[in-house]
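Cross-posted from the bioinformatics board.
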Amino acid sequence: MLLQQLVNGLMLGSTYSLIAIGYALIFGVLGLVHLAHGEVFMMGALIGLQIVLWLHAGPAVALVGALLGTAALGVVIELTAFRPIRARNGPIFAPMVSTIGVGLILQEVATKAFGGEQVGFPHRLEPVTWRLGPVTISSVQVLILGTALVLMLALHLWVTRTRMGMAMRASAESTLTARLLGISTDRVILVTFAVASALAGAAGVLVGLSFNAISPFMGIDMGVKGLAIMLLGGLGNIYGAMVGGLLLGAIEVLSVAYLASSYRDAFVFAVMILILLFRPQGLFGVGQVR
Amino acid sequence: MVSHGKFARFALAVLTLSALALGVAEPAAAQAKIGVLMPLSGKGASYGAHQQVAVKMFQDKGGALTLVIYDTRGENTDAINLTRKLIGSDHVVAIVGPLFSGESEVTFPVAVQGKTPIITPTSAKPGIAAANRPWAFRNALTSDKLDGALVEKWLAANPSVKKVVILVDTKDAVSKSDGSIVLPAALKERGVTVIDSISFQTGDIDYSAQVTKAKSLNPDGLVVAALYNEGANVVRELRKQGLAQPIVAGLGIMDPRFIELAGPAAEGVMTVNDFWTDNPDPAVARWVAEYKQRSPTPPSNAAALMYDTLDIVRACVEKSGVSGKPDDLEKDRERMRDCLSRVKDYKAPVTGSTTFNADGDALRQPVVLVVRKGKFESVR
């Protein structure tokens, strides 16, 4: 049973990772928390679902569509909710509050457009399951894990090997210095939003596929968890977010399996507080944050 | 100026007179206001959407009641506040709703305090109306009147079941009572052992850990006590992880959305209720056909019970001599209460002969249902 539970935890955790990475990317560059990120994740799931319903497409097309759709949404959010406030030198909390507004707007729009009901992907996408000894794995789970790993690897390569990635890291180090060195930080921020949002959108489709529970409110809990994981992994550290997500998924599932199952979230957050008590900078954080 | 003032006074007098005349002409039933509480958004919005269609249908078919309708979002706090509003500022003579047992549990005492009759069409957790005599009623069978018949038929169809695992939503009031008290009692009575009870919460999305745990216990049968969203995903996860054991579910899953969400995994799941869509009875079939013209989805029991509850309330407004005058509000509320407590063998249009017992709970014939080919069918 332990083995199967670990697989369950890995699946849940990999979607957490994708969301947490988005928070980490944006925090890394802007030093700000994007509180509508959970809603971007929700929009990803809804876009994926609409693509499947209208175009009768498979999960791969839905995934690509959601990636592109949420990337565009991320750009719009940066241009409307972050940039104007930054340009006017608003207080540090102003953009955060404006993203709360964006989140609520997205929820309302989604409710009006698609209804407040919980919906799932059509049953023709029902996964094929394989039994490997004591463990049952479904095609959707392979897709989730595969997609999450591929996206994380792509992100790693992008950040470390491309000029844009380098510019992003430079901006994360110091926006001012980066700008002095001739880097267009506005463009870097825009790209960061697109990438972070695309990852959340992909996570939305993956969660929709595996848990069959898409609704305008699915982003609320996930958003909070993603944020917590980012903190756990080390503020703005994308590798911390990856590992933190997997860790939290496993802890959550194991707490259900071996402890009281209706306290899963309470338990997860208690563990998180405990870790932060001993390592306030997070698991992979280095020293003080600016 | 003077003539103008005179004219105005004259006009006012005419208006008042005509209003009085209208008031006399209008039947009392149309003047007495009835409050309606249902979840039109949030958790259980599907139940609420069904009830809304039923309310519309009732009004269109000449149900001469003045309704004041509010959305509780399925939340206890909203339900309490709206009940206070209906009693205190809308001056209703009776309240129909709320839908959930959790909501009913907290709003009934408010209605008792406000001396206003309240009747939930659906709440099924045992004991709630009994604790709030003499003002609370419900037109639903409490789950202890349903689950005995359900377990009986389920075991008859699956005689090999000796030990079961229960999966229960501990956040939803009726599911919790069903899964931790009523169903275990009904199972024990018939010699079935409950190995373990595994919990989850309304709004959870990942049930893989619970299902893996259930699988490791190796039961012969599975019991699910949940609402339709969670119930559907639990059943789906059970089948996905390869548990092929027979499943019995509490009445919370009784909604067409359950089958829609669970898909093929819903096949063979047994549950119980007092209404089902494919009931061949001509009166029910006619009602269902009419309902389907107004709604893309077939009716659920929440819709049927709402329709019948409104019909019972209408009958009481007409029979009990409710005057509908503001001065008579207290008396009108007492008249409604007395009328509701005397409902006996009432021919409700959809669910049939209905009696309210001394606890304020409905008595009716329950039907055990099974999902076959994407539909609820009765088990004979």
